[in-house]
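User:
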Amino acid sequence: MKKNYDIVIIGGGPAGLAAAISAYDKGVKDILVLEREDKTGGILNQCIHNGFGLTRFKESLSGPEYAARFIGEVAKRDIQVLVKTTVLSVSKDKTVTAINEDEGVFMVQAKAIILAMGCR
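Assistant: Predicted structure:
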């Protein structure tokens, strides 16, 4: 696994995915998204009512549909996402220590870190 990234985003919900897409579209290609759940999309996966997406996508979408749009956009850009990954610490020098089943405990160095973990 690569150890240095321009941006590490902690949280794979709509905010984290939108941040990854925006950074990529502005020229930052070296991005890692870390998500502790087994899939990205965040709490929107549980929000089955309509009303999401009116501003961004100009149509009313359910939470899962809205999340799927972001997930698809991240996949189109080939942005690296690690799911089932828990962040253990973030240091002042922007070293992120995390753990998952595949890598065990690992560290990555970032030039910038975006915290997008929602309300938890």
